[in-house]
Amino acid sequence: MSQVIPGENEGIESVLRRFKRQVSKAGIFSDIKKHRHFETPIQKRKRKEIAKHKQRKKGRSRRY
């Protein structure tokens, strides 16, 4: 869980900015998006296959 303690003379905008940065570094947003809807095992398998193909394609284009 991310927690931010505001400084003495710190504005709310900078506190929110620090909180958002901590949450994004912790990977909470991606986890929320992933668990937003139930995913069947078939859908999970398809998603992983697509990700695998993207990684392979990305790796091929960098080789020269």
SSE arrangement:
Elements: H1 12-26, H2 28-34, H3 41-62
What's the short version?
The chain is mostly helical and 64 residues long.
Textual characterization of the structure:
- The protein is mostly helical and 64 residues long.
- It has one domain.
- Helix content is 69%, strand content 0%.
- It has helices at 12-26, 28-34, 41-62.
- The longest helix has 22 residues, at 41-62.
- It is elongated and about 50 Å long.
- The model has no long low-confidence stretch (mean pLDDT 89).
Keywords:
single chain, 64 residues, mainly alpha, 69% helix, elongated
How much helix, percentage-wise, in residues? 55-70%
Count of individual domains: 1
Number of helices: 3
Largest sheet: none
